From TrEMBL:
Organism field: Lujinxingia sediminis
Domain of life of the native organism: Bacteria
Flavodoxin-like domain sequence ranges: 7-182
Name of the protein in question: Flavodoxin-like domain-containing protein
């Protein structure tokens, strides 16, 4: 994309796996020339304004069917800010399922619960397993451009169970997740209320 974006990445730091994924995401964004600020879920500045960023990413372990309570609390408290900006979510399953479908079912059930309980509608989410940074057993779901537009324009009632609103990529890797996230930001260019990212400098 032809702008330099500024993103916030908020993650669960006390567990190794999401910390590794967060570091890999931040590294890839920086390598692409974008700016990213990392925050641990337990040390968020009280005056942090998420709407000052072009997009925000949340990351948590998924342990025994639960995300980190602090991540869920933050999302719930900030859901109004998140509703009209590009937002992404990744989880790292710590379950020892041998069956990829069981991993998928657990991840889908948990993200759907998070949406219902917090009104958080991530445009893209990824399910990783505990072998960072790449897992062929994971997956990425990305909202299509039309439903993304409806969401950004304030339409409510979005249900993650509606598969027609999402494109699914089998296998989860950091590069695909980052590119999908940047694509969501690019889709916002020219929309009212977008944050002012500066153009890329000429080469």
């Amino acid at each position: 994309m032809d702008i330099i974006t500024r993103s916030a990445l908020i993650y669960q730091a006390e567990v190794l796996e999401p910390r590794r994924i967060a570091d890999a995401i931040a590294t890839h964004l920086k390598e692409m020339g974008h700016r990213v600020e990392l925050f641990t879920a337990n040390a968020i500045p009280e005056d942090l304004e998420l709407n000052g960023y072009d997009g925000v990413i949340f990351g948590s372990a998924l342990d025994d069917g639960e995300y980190a309570p602090r991540i869920e609390a933050l999302i719930g408290a900030r859901h109004r800010e998140l509703q009209h900006m590009p937002a992404a979510f990744f989880s790292v399953s710590l379950s020892n399922y041998d069956d990829a479908e069981a991993l998928r079912a657990e991840s889908l059930a948990c993200i759907e619960r998070l949406i219902i309980e917090t009104d958080f509608n991530p445009a893209i989410f990824a399910s990783f397993t505990a072998e960072p940074p790449v897992s062929i057993r994971g997956f990425i779901k990305q909202m299509g451009m039309e439903p993304l537009g409806r969401r950004m324009e304030g339409e409510i009632g979005f249900d993650i169970a509606d598969e027609d609103d999402y494109d699914t990529v089998e296998g989860a890797d950091v590069e695909a997740f980052v590119e999908g996230f940047l694509g969501q930001i690019a889709a916002m260019v020219g929309r009212p209320g977008e944050s002012a990212s500066r153009p890329s400098p000429p080469l």
